[in-house]
Amino acid sequence: MTDMTLGRAGEFDVPIPPKRAWLGWVALLVIAGTQWWAFASSPPDRDMGNLEKILYVHVPAAWTSFIAFFVVLVASVMYLWRREARYDLVAASAAEVGAVLTAMTLALGSIWGRPTWGTWWTWDARLTSTAILLLIYIGYLALRAATDDVERRARWSAAVGILGAINVPIVYMSVRWWRTLHQVQSSPSTVSPTYAAGLRLNALAMTFVAVWLIMARYRAACLQRAAESAAENAALGGRA
User: Which residues, in sequence order, are CB contacts of 187 under 8 Å at separation 6+?
Assistant: First the structure.
């Protein structure tokens, strides 16, 4: 089958990828295994104690959300260029996953911040810019849900997706551009070697999970669009 242009009534001919449910189980086992290993192999931090172990989820979730939004950016640009349905659906799938990961990042950051900063939330540049990023992609998803015209939805979504992705470098660099409570970007090179291996492994595991989620959501989006197209064809008296 070949990819078709969005916007023609009842027309959707994008190949639906296989289910590959086993990848989900592999992803779950991988993230559970890397989390267990990191928790078990790293001693409590001198200052934060076992609270430090949030690092193994909080930081990989933040990194992986950036990857998801980069996928949104590329797929959105490709849709505007090629006007093929698959790019719109890839962008939408990655945006959903990125939004969930960003919400997880903020939630875990608040849990971390309460005992270390003495507050659940502060209008710190990193926190505020991350919250804005999340709101942009919540708006992206709301726009898709509120727009019935397929072609218009795809075009508008692509514009918002690109705008949101432009905010990612601002989030990343906020701790260097402005004075913030949040420490500079965490990476294996900025933490003790005791914690670096666990951070690397969990970053890879979280990326694996995100890729699988995007694939699963893309397949579901293809099935949903195909069902809508079949229903539209039936309503117009065409071939279902």
Answer: 199
Confidence check: pLDDT of 4 > 50 = no
Question: Which candidate, 97, 59, 58, places its Cα nearest to that of 210?
Answer: 97
167/20 Cα distance (integer angstroms): 33
From the list 27, 25, 71, the residue with the least C-alpha distance to 204 is 27
In angstroms, the CA 82 to CA 69 distance is: 20
pLDDT tens, 96-108? 999 999 999 999 9
Q: What is the mean pLDDT of residues 160-172?
A: 93
**Domain layout of the chain by residue ranges:** 45-235
Which residue type does 91 have?
A: A
- Each residue's pLDDT tens digit, 173-207: 888 888 777 777 666 666 777 788 888 999 999 99
Q: pTM score, two decimals?
A: 0.87
How far is the C-alpha of 223 from the C-alpha of 240, rounded, in Å? 14
Tell me the C-alpha to C-alpha distance, in Å, between residue 9 and each of 141, 150, 188, 196: 23, 9, 51, 53
* Stronger pLDDT, 82 or 179, i.e. the higher one: 82
pLDDT tens digits along 7-20: 343 456 677 788 88
